[in-house]
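Supplementary Text 2. Reproducibility record for the structural model of the 106-residue chain.

All settings were left at their defaults, and a single model was retained for analysis rather than an ensemble. We include the record here because the model underlies the residue-level annotations in Supplementary Table 4.
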Amino acid sequence: MYNDSSSPTLTDCNFCGNTSGTGNRNIAGDPIDVSSSGNLLLLNCNTGDVNFDLVIDSGDLGYLLALWGASSVLNADINQDGEVNGADLAYILSYFGGATDATTAP
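Retained model, structure tokens:
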């Protein structure tokens, strides 16, 4: 997110897939860690955790169902076939309640 005319603040957010082998790549500003308003920069994304709360549960299921049939919804269209559909639902159901990776980036 870039905004040259204001200073937006994000709190309690998890960011993923934005790192290189040496750490932060496309992040500017103060370090992102638990002390920065609860924000985390995760080393790995958790496919199926479509609401980014580090668990695959009813919250993800509800989010996916609310977007059923939508296109261009990157986090809910898990298999990236262009539509939120049964294939995405099957993925969430198969990993429902499973462990996610909360490893933070270096």
